[in-house]
Design a protein that fits this description.
single chain; 280 residues; alpha+beta; Endonuclease, Chain A; 10 helices; extended
Amino acid sequence: MKDFFTIYDTIGFLITFISVVYVYSKSNKLNKKTNSIIISLLGLILTQLVSIRYDSFVNLESNINGLESNVEHFGEISQSPRALSVAKEIAQFYKINKQFPEFFTERVESSIRSFANDIHDANNLVFSVEADEMDKYSLSLINAVDISYHATSCVSMESWWNTEWGKKYAQINYDKAKKGAKIVRVFVFSDINDFNNQKHILQEQKTNGIKIKYIYANEARRNGISLDLDIAVVDGDKIGCELTLDKRGSFSSAKFSFNREKNNSMHEKINNLEDIAKDF
């Protein structure tokens, strides 16, 4: 949209004003008014023509730059056979989608949006994992530890620590601690009975070199801690992980992050929780 007064308008008005004054001073007495009006109108018309011309040029230049950017992206896509194939499949769907029932096109649209969200996350150095993939990715996460590992544990004992994968995960924690890595875990319990039921797990982990802290749910909530999310951070800000829990306290999905700014934010949340939690 054109601004109310552009630089071209301002210059044009000044030139018009000077021209009117000059013509007025040089014209004879009978023609002063007529000549001044004519020069004013011509000046204003020329000013608007110049302003519109250059304003359009700026818009055109902006559109060309945007087109060049898109062409550059198309070039990048064309260099990846897989990306090119996906782009062609999506384009083909939009050509034929009107031939099919609405519920079909809605389902495909939903898949495309999900795919777009995944790509957006990937560009921000984040990727998502579903529940059935959590086991192996949890092991990959703890295996990446060199210096430190800070984590919360809101997950239920039955759905993680008592499972085969949970025990493998715990063993890698112990191995890392023996090699000198600092591992801190904050357990969150619903009440004293929940604490007593899982106390043996805390003792086992402490015996194997893990620094254990704990807190009750009510106190955690008062301090703004979400109980439907577990957080883990590797080596300060190298890798971060947010694990979403369902109503049963089981993992439902997770997001792994290599975005250092995001990981620092997660680390800060865990540190705040560690500050208010009790040592075991």
